[in-house]
Design brief:
Jelly Rolls, 7-stranded antiparallel β-sheet, 7% helix, disordered C terminus, Redox-sensitive bicupin YhaK (Pirin superfamily), Pirin
């Protein structure tokens, strides 16, 4: 059960959208998240990269962490590491994470909170479970989204946003069966608290069995739906979608979902940047030369203003 809940009967409702005249977005593709290990060895499910990045643009990566019940001494995180050229958005559904960075940002993210870090020109940071969670164990469930920065904002100074659980905008679906938490962007005139360099919409919805969720969606945005828990259908064609699957939607002006069981989903989309992408681990720039510059700055201690005496492998492929 997600930490942030509310009585949907008391919340503003999304508008009812008519079946016959609404330009519903059809499903273009469904992919299953791949499992991998990150940081000190915690498991994530990663639906993208895995689809063509042009379909996900301006998003770069989505990691689904948990849900997992840690025993004492089992909780793990990601010690100090660098980033440049994009933003990391860590949303905790349940549990806690402690963030520190070389720009002086940081804090404790708790149940339902979001840590939005703009790496920009470069920052070093760590993301670790607090010591009390390590000692006693407990439930941990969250996601991290990487949002690309446009070329003009790649060198912006690092910035940190602490979005508390109470800051999220809460809405109800038109039939009252869905609770929607708007983290960033605009849904039917309701704007979430996250400040973005790239126009995006990012929300988390919980649906009761049999409930539907209908969302007006900007036609110029792309759109994706990822299932955190449960199963249901997406699109007017009722394409099945279950936990760990991502649906990439085609063009249209609205999104429709229906739950078969209790279901939690992320719905996200944004205005594609349509710019060249060069990637090397934690660096995302526009050219190979900028990636080499980031690596050299990191090794020389110029990235984030803090000297780090080691770097990652030097023989990894640099993506163009």
């Amino acid at each position: 059960m997600p930490a942030v809940t509310a009585d949907t009967l008391t919340l503003p409702r999304l508008p009812a959208l008519p079946d016959a005249t609404t330009a519903w977005r059809p499903v273009k593709r469904v992919v299953r998240a791949r499992r991998s290990l990150e940081g000190e060895g915690f498991q994530v499910r990663r639906p993208f990269p895995g689809v063509d990045l042009a379909l996900a643009d301006p998003f770069l990566l989505l990691d689904h962490m948990g849900a997992v019940e840690y025993g004492p001494g089992e909780a793990k995180g990601a010690p100090w590491h660098p980033h440049r050229g994009f933003e990391t958005v860590t949303y905790l559904i349940d549990g806690a994470f402690e963030h520190k960075d070389s720009a002086g940002g940081g804090g404790l993210i708790t149940d339902g909170g979001t840590q939005w870090m703009t790496a920009g020109s470069g920052v070093l940071h760590s993301e670790l479970p607090p010591q009390d969670l390590v000692a006693r164990g407990g439930l941990f469930h969250g996601v991290q989204l990487w949002v690309n920065l446009p070329r003009a904002a790649k060198w912006t100074p690092p910035r940190y946003q602490d979005i508390r659980p109470a800051d999220a905008v809460l809405l109800a679906g038109d039939d009252g069966g869905a609770l929607v938490r708007v983290i960033a962007g605009d849904v039917a005139g309701f704007r979430g608290p996250g400040a973005t360099h790239t126009p995006i919409t990012y929300l988390h919805a919980t649906l009761a069995p049999g409930a539907r969720l209908r969302l007006p969606w900007p036609e110029e945005f792309n759109a994706m739906v990822y299932v955190l828990h449960g199963r249901g259908t997406v699109g007017h064609e009722h394409r099945p979608l279950e936990e760990g699957q991502l649906a990439v939607l085609d063009r249209g002006r609205a999104i429709t979902l229906r739950a078969e069981t209790d279901q939690d989903v992320l719905v996200l989309g944004g205005l594609p940047l349509n710019e060249p992408v060069a990637r090397y681990g934690p660096f995302v720039m526009n050219t190979r030369a900028e990636i080499i510059e980031a690596i050299e700055d990191f090794r020389a201690g110029r990235l984030g203003g803090t000297h780090v005496p080691h770097a990652g492998p030097a023989d990894e492929k640099i993506d163009q």
